[in-house]
Amino acid sequence: MTDPRWLTEHEQRAWRGYLDMHARLTARLHRDLQADSGLSLSDFDVLVQLTDRDDERARVLELAQALQWEKSRLSHHLARMERRGLVERQECPDDARGAFIALTAQGRRTIEQAAPQHVNTVRDLVFDQLTAEQVDTLLAISTQVQARLDDTQ
Amino acid sequence: MTDPRWLTEHEQRAWRGYLDMHARLTARLHRDLQADSGLSLSDFDVLVQLTDRDDERARVLELAQALQWEKSRLSHHLARMERRGLVERQECPDDARGAFIALTAQGRRTIEQAAPQHVNTVRDLVFDQLTAEQVDTLLAISTQVQARLDDTQ
DNA sequence: CCCAGATAGTTGACGTATCACCAAAGATAA
DNA sequence: TTATCTTTGGTGATACGTCAACTATCTGGG
């Protein structure tokens, strides 16, 4: 605790490289997606969740859990997306407190137009650069780190 | 372009796993750092840059380049850090437009107190979970993806 | 039926990120 | 010198994320 175990030179390079890669990668993905479709990465994630449902709608808390977002973040974000006509709120007959969030026609058109190019960019920038073994290792790393995150509360 | 090459099932799992890991990992690191020292991860990065200099100060654009931040982001951020007493502005005699940003005594105390625990958390959550080969692969992945980012403008 | 506590979702305040624009100072050339 | 071009840095508007507080509704025990 008070006696730190510092990172080795090699670990420091790996850590810095990882942080820099992530910052630059998401900045590029965000910029391209925005230019291509006017969507942010967050918009994209919300719309993907909705298109994955049979009826293209979901309860707010359901979405929050699927996205791993705080409910207030989602609430603010949905208000902005609703203003832009990407989603709409529908009353929930079972529970008058609740609301359904539904994809609008414009929301569906937008995500259907944006997704192919976005996937191509991810492929170009990431998966085309990696070997199959590296992809395996990336998944293993993600799994192991998340297991530790789960362990430590 | 119009004909997407979708990700394989395995690639999708790796991509989702990676995004989820990063979101959860940085959220945890941020929360712990904040609780321990009152610093944000951004504050931390700025302070590390300053402590790395001999005279514990730097020009604004120098910092912006080192951090890979936009100058306006840095300007706003420094204004807030200055208000909290972590850094101070000093006049630049060589160039009256310019400013030095210098670590304050409080800034130095804060980062020196915060860094060991932060490094321990990174080690606990990440490097203690990985084999040496996995760390190598992480560095290779970061390098390869950043090379592609460099290539594509 | 009534009320306490839980649940669904929103709101407001504040810190932060980005964008576009601005201003002051320096550099360069006529 | 003046004109203009570049560099250094800041500002204000707007969007976003988080926290705490809030409203409205539901649910279970008396």
TrEMBL record, chains A, B:
PROSITE patterns reported in the protein's UniProt record: HTH_MARR_2
One GO biological process term: response to stress
The keyword Transferase is assigned to this record: no
Keywords: DNA-binding
Residue ranges constituting the HTH marR-type domain according to the UniProt record: 1-147
InterPro entries: HTH_MarR-typ, MarR/SlyA-like, WH-like_DNA-bd_sf, WH_DNA-bd_sf
Classification via SUPFAM superfamilies: Winged helix' DNA-binding domain
Recorded GO MF terms: DNA binding; DNA-binding transcription factor activity
Protein name per Swiss-Prot or TrEMBL: DNA-binding transcriptional regulator, MarR family
Phylogenetic lineage: Bacteria, Bacillati, Actinomycetota, Actinomycetes, Pseudonocardiales
